[in-house]
């Protein structure tokens, strides 16, 4: 088992896409890298500004997830040398925790001699994240539709398909952190039948529109009543962007995952200038720092390189 360094590249992701709360995910060409090898003693090196402040000892999420995999496989937990970097910011709604979990599971699985299949790793990642949307998109790339299993340990039912040709995403990333936990705590425990039916209809329409490349339907289909209305108070600018983005060149707009990142889909570079000017106008009105990125869909999911020492 020793002498092998595993390098895993994992795409950042967005979850929900509006109405598909905890069920829809999509991967972006914005990557984290996790390198892992068995060592004499554990070292955890977090590289780059995005990972600043994450633990550099056995409390790091990457180590804990890897250790859990060895334990699940019935193996002794080894000391590990771990290095990681991330192009995506943490705690902003771009799936950093799912990327870390998927990266650690896939890397540790290789070091352990591949006791688990990709499907089993997806089930473990979903269990650790609590929902399959970001984890599925990080694992398989493209667009993922998935639900929680009937009982723990069962395989996750999912369908993966490619993002429609020409779909591009503008993301507005506010410079403040919003943990998934905090953004879930503002959601109600109970919803009206009207709101549930509204989301079933819109989420179903969105999946069909994405699968058939009906970009013309996305603005209508991306409307949500289950989480965005409650999270809007945590995310300055969200209401206005959701309301008006389609009048300024977007195909549709949504809160990315649990936020605070806001995403706008668009399909032509001509529309980008207008859309960019619109989001700048909205965000400047709220006096918070933010950055804008244009992201392309990732179709590959997690990628593994094995380096023999
Ligand atoms: N590479 C990493 N190494 C260690 N911990 C990480 C790493 N990436 C993410 N994390 C942990 O995940 C936490 C962020 O998880 P959280 O679910 O709040 O946000 P997110 O995954 O970025 O957003 P969302 O789930 O809404 O898309 C960080 O605070 C950190 O504890
Ligand atoms: N579906 C999750 C994604 C964040 O991890 C949520 O919106 O809370």
From TrEMBL:
Class in the EC hierarchy, top level: transferase
InterPro entries linked to this entry: GHMP_kinase_C_dom (IPR013750), GHMP_kinase_C_sf (IPR036554), GHMP_kinase_N_dom (IPR006204), Homoserine_kinase (IPR000870), Ribosomal_Su5_D2-typ_SF (IPR020568), Ribsml_uS5_D2-typ_fold_subgr (IPR014721)
This protein's GO CC annotations: cytoplasm
Keywords for this protein: Amino-acid biosynthesis, ATP-binding, Cytoplasm, Kinase, Nucleotide-binding, Threonine biosynthesis, Transferase
Superkingdom of source: Bacteria
Binding sites annotated in the UniProt record for ATP: 89-99
Subcellular location: Cytoplasm
Family membership noted in the UniProt record: Belongs to the GHMP kinase family. Homoserine kinase subfamily.
Function: Catalyzes the ATP-dependent phosphorylation of L-homoserine to L-homoserine phosphate.
Protein known as: Homoserine kinase
């Amino acid at each position: 088992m020793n002498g092998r360094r595993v390098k895993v590249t994992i795409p950042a992701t967005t979850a929900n896409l509006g109405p598909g709360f905890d069920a829809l995910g999509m991967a972006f060409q914005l990557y984290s890298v996790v390198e892992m090898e068995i060592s004499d003693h554990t070292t955890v090196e977090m590289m780059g500004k995005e990972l600043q402040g994450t633990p550099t000892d056995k409390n790091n999420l990457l180590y804990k997830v890897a250790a859990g995999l060895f334990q699940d496989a019935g193996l002794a937990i080894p000391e590990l040398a771990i290095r990681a970097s991330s192009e995506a910011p943490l705690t902003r709604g771009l799936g950093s925790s799912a990327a870390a979990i998927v990266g650690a599971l896939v890397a540790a699985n290789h070091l352990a001699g591949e006791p688990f299949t990709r499907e089993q790793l997806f089930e473990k990642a979903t269990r650790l994240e609590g929902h399959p949307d970001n984890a599925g998109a990080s694992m398989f790339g493209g667009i993922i539709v998935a639900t929680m299993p009937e009982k723990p340990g069962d395989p996750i039912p999912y369908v993966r398909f490619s993002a429609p040709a020409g779909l591009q995403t503008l993301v507005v990333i506010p410079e403040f952190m919003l943990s998934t936990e905090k953004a879930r705590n503002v959601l109600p425990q109970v919803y009206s039948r009207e709101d549930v039916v509204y989301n079933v209809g819109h989420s179903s329409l969105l999946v069909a529109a994405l699968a058939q490349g009906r970009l013309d339907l996305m603005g209508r289909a991306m409307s949500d009543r289950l989480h965005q209305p409650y999270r809007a108070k945590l995310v300055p600018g969200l209401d206005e962007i959701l309301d008006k983005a389609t009048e300024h060149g977007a195909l549709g707009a949504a809160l990315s995952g649990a936020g605070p990142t806001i995403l706008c889909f668009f399909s032509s570079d001509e529309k980008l200038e207008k859309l960019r000017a619109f989001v700048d106008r909205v965000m400047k009105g709220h006096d918070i720092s933010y950055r804008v990125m244009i992201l392309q869909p990732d179709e590959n999911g997690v990628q593994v390189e094995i380096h023999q020492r």
